[in-house]
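Hi support team,

I'm filing this because I wasn't sure whether my run with NAP finished correctly. The job status page said complete, but I'd like someone to confirm that the output block is well-formed before I use it downstream. Pasting the exact inputs I used:
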Amino acid sequence: MILHQALPSEFAKTLEAYRALETLLADGKVRAIGVSNFMVDHLSRLLDRATVVPAVNQIEVHPYFAQPEVQDFGAEHGILTQAWSPIGGITFYRDGSHGSTLADPVIGEIATTHGKTPAQVMLRWGMQHGRSVIPKSTKPSRIAENINVFDFELSADEITAIDGLDTGRRGGPEPDAITLETFGREIPEA
Ligand SMILES: NC(=O)c1ccc[n+]([C@@H]2O[C@H](COP(=O)([O-])OP(=O)(O)OC[C@H]3O[C@@H](n4cnc5c(N)ncnc54)[C@H](OP(=O)(O)O)[C@@H]3O)[C@@H](O)[C@H]2O)c1
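And here is everything the job wrote out:
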């Protein structure tokens, strides 16, 4: 079970929510707990107070936005980076005005070299970096395509070429801009 988002402006609520996950883990109700969209500052504030290190931090990672500083901090503290939008879905299903990772020429050329698709190359890139990757598709043929990534390997040069595509431009919401005013929801049963 993961905590979807930190609430940086009221971090005590974030800690309270994470403590609820720790209780579920201690009670054997869930097998592992983690967080999502936590930046370095959020992780470090959480680690100061938590008793359980989150198993994963699920963050936006694809060739156009890789957040190396968050990944490095996670690696130093035993937190696995789990990539959401691992084939860059957020680069094309939202507005697409900054270009789609699926149409990137560098990725396309590497895909052609291996007889694979751009999506498969991006998943392989994530896996060879040691990340968990969670692509999503509504189409059975693409689900099959996305799992068919265990019969080829990218070279170090190919990985470096894909690393070089990072634009530093986030596709999803800025985690520090999440406030109760902008994203708050009433939960009547709570
Ligand atoms: N924690 C968070 O804040 C957060 C935020 C966003 C997403 N997520 C989770 O992350 C997971 C995946 O991320 P995502 O859906 O944003 O992006 P993604 O998996 O990178 O991309 C999904 C998009 O790519 C298309 N697609 C899938 N496989 C393809 C393929 N082989 N070739 C071409 N197009 C393909 C899908 O369309 P079709 O369905 O038409 O195939 C869909 O439009 C989801 O389970 C989502 O719930 C988490």
